[in-house]
Amino acid sequence: MLIERYIYLAIALFCIGIVGVLARRNAIIIFMCIELMLNAVNLLLVAFSKMHYAAGVAKNATAGIDGQLFVFFIMVVAAAEVSVGLAIIVMMYRNTHSVDVNFLNRLKH
Amino acid sequence: MNNVLHLVWLVPFFPLVGFLINGLLRKQLSKPLISIIGSGMVLASFIVSVLLFTEVKNGNTYVANLFDFISYGTLSIPFAFQIDQLSSLFLLIITGVGFLIHVYSAAYMHEERNEHYGRYFCYLNLFVFSMLLLVLGANYVIMFIGWEGVGLCSYLLIGYWFKNTEYNNAAKKAFIMNRIGDLGFLIAIFWLIAKLGTVTYTTPEGSGVFDLFQKLTRTDIIGITMLLFVGATGKSAQIPLYTWLPDAMAGPTPVSALIHAATMVTAGIYMIARSNILYTMAPETQSVVAAIGLATALFAATIAIKQNDIKKVLAYSTVSQLGYMFLGLGVGAYTGAVFHVMTHAFFKALLFLGAGSVIHAMHHEQDIRKMGGLAKKLPVTHITFLIGCIAIAGIPPFSGFFSKDEILAFAYAKDPMYYYLGVAGAAMTAFYMFRLYATTFRGTFRGTEEQKHHLHESPAAMTIPLIVLAILAALGGLIGIPESIMPNAHKLEHFLEPIFAKSNEIKMAALPEHHTEINLMVISVALALVMIIFAWARYSKKPELNEPAGFGKVLADKWYIDELYNVVIVRPLQWLAKFMNSFFEKKVVDGIVNGVGRLVNYTSRQVRLLQSGLVGNYVLLMVLSMLALFIVKFFIQK
């Protein structure tokens, strides 16, 4: 399978994430968009790892699959991050009865 | 018995101790105790100096390296004292005359309050300490420390009565004039360091300034000697920096005697006599020194003729006599100049202290027009003052005759013109001194009845120094009887020979033939006698009481030199300062300072808008900057 397709998909996912983060005010949706960007990168890592593995084994029998392993680490960290992030959002809702991020500009003052 | 010379550090040490004790405890100690400490310390120095002198007389010299003062790279300046013929002679003059002046001061200043009395003696001791440092230093840097020290002390002592603004101005004037000269001295020291890498006079290994002088180029040696001479004109009150000395009469009279007659002003002479080899190598500078000295001698003498303040007359006569010393240095008569320093210290200290005694008796009246006929009321002062006048006028066998005529004889050998002008100055000296004497002591009393009632001879503490100085002024010249009168009687010349040996090797200053020299002496003595008789006869009967008019007024107003300096230097400087204050300070300096403040204020107000508090904005900025980074990375920075 051509590597370009994975790249296009990852770019599409990443851009959707950016646009979501920029355009939306709902904290949960922003959060989801961030996850989307994260996973776009994960996808790229897996795709490139696979590509280099196929090419590398021919020359070197011990060519690694580090990229794919790395993705697992990112997932674990992302899971931890999600739990923290969601907790923040819950606290935010309790305080302001809203999940609108623009509502939180009181830090400015 | 060489170990006596190891005690050299004691000489400046005693006055320093006296300065500390009197300075720190001036409020606790009683007046008699203060004066005993102050004078006693100088007496102790004098005793040590005498011991050193006897040792040096046997031909022993010594350099005491106390500690490393500055050590940097190859440059090493030790804190060292040099005891040789020249410095031991100056030690005797400074501590001996200084001691007499201290004793005199104890009585003269008795009206002062306790702490001011202590302050006075502590300054006096500090002054003697600085002067000793100047003379003893074995290199130019130590000399410079003492040099600055005497400048500071003269400032403190001239402004001793600090509640009087005029006196403070005189003190500031002295300090600033001295600083101008000091700059020259300082640059000369740097020049020496740059060219020779040393400032030590001479070393046994031959690595001192006076050993290496042949390494200097012609320009170097002329530049250095000229700059040193600039320093000397400041300290020794020569044209153009002499105007501070007459104003310095604002200080108490014994201070005038100490600073402005016996010690401080001779620092310049000492420095040039010390550097005699450099000057011998630079005949151009020598001509300048001689010309300036002669000009000063004549110029100050003309001013002195018309002064009516007893101390001002003496001040201008000091300037004039210093001019003679520089003339001596300029024509290569180093021994003569040092000799004149010595005799001048005796008779000028005597005259100043005598003037102090008169002022004391007259209740701080200094105008000689209001005196007259004091001879009977103040017998001791009168006799001693008369001896001083005869000595300065140059009548044999009093001391001034020998030293002045030695200088004039050398001047004749160099250029007869020097001699004629010098004799004219000497005649004027005789004239104004006896004008002063006759107006003060002869004729009838012209003061108020109350002053007449209170006229009294000064106490013993004041008259005894006068008597001692009078004896010295009368007989001091006998150590330097010229060859033409008595062969091998010039003891001072033999004593100082090692100091000037190198200069004499290079170029021996010539003396005229013996019979010519005697003729010259006869001429100058005859002229002086005529002037004395003329002035005595004229001013005893009919003193000048009116304000001078015509040319006399020009002389009385000191050729308007102060006014000239005021217009040429002070006013433009003040104008520049005013301009700097109103334009440069307000517009440029303040503009830069305020501008920086305003810029920071403005930019921060603009940048503050970025922090909107909206999370979306922050994210947008973050994305945009990341994009920018990508663009830079992939498209611009290939």
UniProtKB/TrEMBL annotation, chain A:
MF-aspect GO terms: NADH dehydrogenase (quinone) (non-electrogenic) activity; quinone binding
Keywords: Cell inner membrane, Cell membrane, Membrane, NAD, Oxidoreductase, Quinone, Translocase, Transmembrane, Transmembrane helix, Transport
Swiss-Prot/TrEMBL GO biological process terms: ATP synthesis coupled electron transport
Ranges annotated as spanning the membrane: 6-23, 28-49, 69-93
Major localization class: membrane
One CC-aspect GO term: NADH dehydrogenase complex
Subunit text: NDH-1 is composed of 14 different subunits. Subunits NuoA, H, J, K, L, M, N constitute the membrane sector of the complex.
Function: NDH-1 shuttles electrons from NADH, via FMN and iron-sulfur (Fe-S) centers, to quinones in the respiratory chain. The immediate electron acceptor for the enzyme in this species is believed to be a menaquinone. Couples the redox reaction to proton translocation (for every two electrons transferred, four hydrogen ions are translocated across the cytoplasmic membrane), and thus conserves the redox energy in a proton gradient.
Alphabetical list of NCBIfam families matching this protein: PRK05715.1-2
Protein name: NADH-quinone oxidoreductase subunit K
Species annotation: Niastella koreensis (strain DSM 17620 / KACC 11465 / NBRC 106392 / GR20-10)
